[in-house]
């Protein structure tokens, strides 16, 4: 597909906060390409674990005060904490054109 279509779809995916069912289809991981130019096609459909997502959301809400307790100098703290939209997922289906990633930026498993 065209990179412009991928960017538009990615933008919609990022803006979709708190869905019950999450899905993504596209060229995502470029881990195997030394130049990080060619990506593997991946697609998934997942159901959101609302209870676990809420617990992680509570932790994210406490993050600004928790970060102040970390044992490093102020210069290593970001000026402003940007809260992520954390969602715990149960994968229903996953396909890939290459290797299967076990997690974001993790080692890969050969099929």
Keywords:
single chain, alpha+beta, three-stranded antiparallel sheet, two-stranded antiparallel sheet, 5 strands, extended, disordered C terminus
Description of the molecule:
With 111 residues, the protein is an alpha+beta fold. Helix content is 28%, strand content 24%. The protein contains two helices and five strands, in the order H-E-E-H-E-E-E. A three-stranded antiparallel β-sheet has the order 1-2-3. Strands 4-5 form a two-stranded antiparallel sheet. A hairpin with a 6-residue loop joins strand 4 and strand 5 (108-109). It is extended and about 45 Å long.
What composes the largest sheet?
3 strands, antiparallel
Strand portion: 15-25%
Q: What is the CA-atom radius of gyration, in angstroms? A: 17 Å
Order of helices and strands: HEEHEEE
């Amino acid at each position: 597909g065209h990179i412009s279509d991928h960017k538009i779809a990615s933008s919609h995916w990022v803006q979709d906060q708190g869905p019950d069912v999450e899905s993504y289809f596209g060229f995502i991981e470029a881990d195997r390409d030394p130049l990080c130019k060619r990506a593997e096609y991946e697609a998934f459909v997942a159901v959101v674990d609302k209870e676990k997502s809420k617990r992680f959301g509570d932790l994210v809400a406490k993050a600004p005060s928790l970060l102040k307790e970390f044992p490093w100098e102020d210069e290593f703290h970001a000026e402003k904490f940007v809260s992520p939209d954390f969602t715990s997922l149960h994968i229903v289906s996953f396909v890939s054109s290459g290797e299967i990633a076990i997690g974001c930026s993790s080692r890969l498993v050969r099929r």
